[in-house]
Records
---
Amino acid sequence: MKKVFLIFTALLFMGCSSVMKGLKTDKAVKIIFDTDMGNDIDDGLALDMLYKYVEDGKVDLLAITSNKKESGSTEYLDIMNNFYGFPNVPIGKITDGPDSKKGDHFAFNVSQDKSYKRSIKDYDKIPESVDLLRKTLQKHKNNSVVIVAVGFSSNLSRLLDSKPDDISPLTGKELIAKKVKYLCMMAGDFRPERKHSEYNVRLDKQSAQNVFKNWPTKIVTSPFEVGLDIKYPGSSISKDFTYVKKHPLVKGYEAFAKMPYDRQTWDLTSVLYAVEGDGNGKYFSLSSAGNIEVQEDSKTVYEPSAKGNRYYLKVNEEQKKAVANRFLEIITRVPKVLEK
């Protein structure tokens, strides 16, 4: 009888532990999150969604790679990992990345508060993003990893151009072709009437050109116009997070711009599609297959082609409402690590 009790206790402990760590099931989407955390608060909102999906057993978050070179970016990622109960998710940094908003960005501001728990002692010693990408891809099954990229294409381009090394005998392009299921990225603008050079593309045009031209797997991009009119309400930030005195996502939102304000959800749309797809048409519509070219003025051009493997998301008014409601449903949920 005592043996039975001990077995039951062990199983109960394992069950509780899996709630804290997230349930990794065969159906969980294996995701690497590549982000310019610190440039826009929608990266923080998107990361919150990923943690919640991990809790639900829908995502296995393999790694987070920063493509923003300021150290506050990686420190904020470490703070978020610990706050949400996932301190062991590996983080990568970028050296000599593209110029972007410097200094007093929201991630830097939050990282100045030393009361937040951290796991990393020296942010200068964390791996380069391209090395972490190669290491992560190498150890997972073929055609199993989805990369969600919501910033500059710098890390992706460097991965694509990487050479065989101690991590893998494959080139970056070969490794991507073997291990990546598809790339889901926030980039571009495909509106025929008001097309502009979208920020993620413009800040590192050459890398974006390389990725759209040479990436060997399917790419699904969520363009500027998709998240433009789907906004996360500042009123939610003010009233839905009182379950904790100090929340790094809330503090980041408050530091990004003067409250109250509603913020576009560009990066969140890529996360939603990567995990839940188009929702059987509830959330998105998908373009036909084609090719995407980044022009010298940084504008993106889509050309339909039956032989192409580039797609972009589209939304109508009803879908915008459904997506906005889904964002609220996920993000306002109390993280399991904080549930009483």
---
Amino acid sequence: MKKLLLFGFIICLFLSCQQKEKPSISFYYWKTIFRLSPKEKNTLSTNQVKRLYIRYFDIDLSPETQKAYPKSPIRFEETTSNFEVIPVVYIKNKVMLNPKLNVLDLAKKINNFIQQINAKNNISVQEIQIDCDWTLTSKDNYLRFIEAFKKVSDKKLSATIRLHQIKYFEKTKIPNVDRGVLMYYNMGKIAPDSLNSIYDRNIASRYLSSLKNYPLPIDIALPIYSWGIHIRDGKIIGLRNKIDLNKLKNNSSFVLTKNNWFTVTNSNFKDGIYYKENDLLKIETITSTDLLEMATDLEENTVQNPKEIIFYDLDEFNIKNYDTALFEKIIDCF
């Protein structure tokens, strides 16, 4: 009897291990020119990355005509033959808010543009991803667009999902896609306060338990970017990307007054941006500890492991802040 119980325990343990297959590592590529640096190539190679999510173009709304149009399309300067490419189209929510939007026409035009880019660069794709932070007001147009695009493209379709769309899915509804990708970042409000708008564990904790009830299979996107919030007279006047903290600390015109907060001591131009005396620069970053914490919390709150962890985004400026082995450590948390 004891032998049978031991045998049964071993079988259960084996099946449990079989179910806990580790996710694969992928990256978003969010620049307008596809050209990989040696460091970016090394990161992809070291982590055995096989899939890239490449932003093909944005869809914006023309203020003059109130018609949707493609903005900042990708240009390929080297081949993608070593990777499976998933085109990502970012659609601004104001496009979906347009009451006169012809969703079928938009679906056809987006699909045609994707096909043109693929044909020009000899890229074959099996899946397309739509990135749009739809709201209760825009959800009807968005859901109808997804239905139309799925038929027009005849491809597998994925969609980005935000935390509030997970928790309140009965109100925000679920797009008819093959899978979702939870964007586990941009959680808070961009504000001149002490909180980190990219990641806040307290905010995340309000939504995490909802993951167990979400009906759509989801993978996870984690942040590896940073930015600076430029503040003047208590008001935000812009986001400043790719600010090197070490260079900032060595710049006499910027003085570190508290953790990741700088005060401008002399009016100056930096990287084409004018900083006025007494302006503030709040630097928001994501540490390795943050990423491991995110992975642990997500693992504890998902019924099934995600099949893929996608890091946003592949850029030499971003990845130089992390040890190459970190990505594998994050995967090991699941």
